[in-house]
Amino acid sequence: MCSQDQLIVLWPSLLEVTTSSILKAENVSVREDRIKIASGGKDEVTSIEFLGSVVRLKVRSPSGTLTVVLSDVEFEKLKLEYGNPVTASWSQKDQIPLKM
After folding, report:
1. Which of 42, 62, 70, 78 has the greatest number of CB atoms lying within 10 Å of its CB?
2. Per DSSP, what are the bridge partners of residue 28?
3. What is the phi/psi pair of residue 52, to 5°?
4. Nearest residue to 36 via CA among 3, 14, 62, 53
């Protein structure tokens, strides 16, 4: 469940949650291949690993560091480089609440 202070972004047919405050509100897990990346934003690409047909990114967000896996085709479309500002988001249905 999202708190009211979270930034919600509507994507076509999906409810997306950005990193701006989601991890402050509750502890959740999201599969690294379910996280979407868009150019521009408060998050930053801090590592790029080319692994054949996929690319693994490390993204620093206000909530911590995320690992994101994109297909090589998705990565090429975004034209990302180390240090680029990005926005990481995911569908609310992909969140798995963690019990502390």
Report:
1. 70
2. 97
3. 80, -115
4. 14
